[in-house]
Design goal:
By secondary structure, this protein is of the alpha+beta class. The protein contains nine helices and 13 strands.
């Protein structure tokens, strides 16, 4: 059994009373979270479990495209199969919409939003309104956002790990939230979340565009998993381990070591990774 698979458990009274679908009950089983109500503590536990147990990775994206011709988001059943049996997770186009669907099914006032990077609506994010407060949730940015981040704060919300820092700026007058990603004291990336609520189908054109031969996640291998105060990531031939106190980068020698590193640290089988590397070419 893959070291990252967990034993299943039986959901509690609240989950049964919600009349959840079988797939959403299975989702909770995989997260090993038993929400007792649609309150903040349950939300915090759900976000933490999603970020720590479902990796950010694009291996599944390329694998499904190469072996099945899939050029869209895996359905919920395929997504859960990937988590349970193959060590998969997903990118923002699968992690955020599927987690958003789970929150809605559990009774949360959760909304899916588009976010602009260099192009409009090429990222997704979630907001939750709870007890007259709004929270930012993003389980698809390869970032340690393992708790709901307050959107209505008057000051920056600061998240740090290793040599990286993420700043959620106070929303502007139009309701847009700015996330900045800094590394070694310099901003390297970021996005702007727009307030309009979007159906997952809204992102279909951007998702199709993400399969272009020159698109980022069709030309790289990127995986990150998180724990309490640490992350372990692979970006092409770099193995990156970060903690609250610092970080270490180890250069992998080549494809063979890369395949082993992905199997050892993410539980993705060597044959699946090799299929992806063959699809990527050089």
């Amino acid at each position: 059994m893959c070291p990252f698979q967990r034993q299943k458990w039986i959901g509690g009274w609240y989950v049964r009373s919600m009349g959840l679908s079988a797939l959403h009950r299975r989702y909770l089983d995989l997260l090993e979270v038993e929400p007792h109500d649609a309150g903040f503590e349950s939300l915090r536990r759900l976000v933490r479990a999603q970020v720590q147990r479902v990796p950010f990775e694009n291996v599944s994206k390329i694998y499904y495209w190469k072996t099945m011709g899939l050029s869209g988001v895996p359905g919920l059943e395929m997504y859960l199969d990937g988590i349970e049996h193959h060590g998969f997770g997903g990118t923002c186009y699968s992690n955020n919409p599927h987690f958003h669907g789970l929150l809605v099914a559990l009774g949360y006032d959760a909304r899916l939003h588009g976010a602009d990077m260099t192009q409009p609506d090429v990222h997704t994010a979630i907001s939750v309104r709870l007890n007259d407060h709004r929270y930012h949730i993003d389980t698809g940015y390869a970032a340690p956002f393992d708790r709901p981040l307050p959107k209505d704060s008057d000051t920056d919300v600061d998240v740090r790990l290793g040599n990286e820092r993420w700043l959620l700026r106070p929303a502007d007058a139009a309701g847009r939230s700015q996330m900045e990603h800094h590394r070694d004291g310099r901003q390297i990336h970021g996005y702007t979340v727009k307030p309009a609520e979007r159906d997952p189908s809204y992102f279909a054109p951007a998702i199709m565009d993400s399969y272009r031969p020159d698109s980022t996640f069709m030309n790289t291998v990127r995986l990150v998993r998180f724990g309490d105060g640490w992350s372990l990531g692979i970006q092409d031939y770099n193995l990156i381990h970060a903690t609250r106190d610092g970080y270490e980068i180890r250069r992998l020698s080549g494809r063979e070591e890369l395949v082993v590193a992905i199997a050892d640290n993410f539980g993705i089988s060597p044959n699946k990774t090799q299929t992806v590397l063959d699809a990527l070419g050089k």
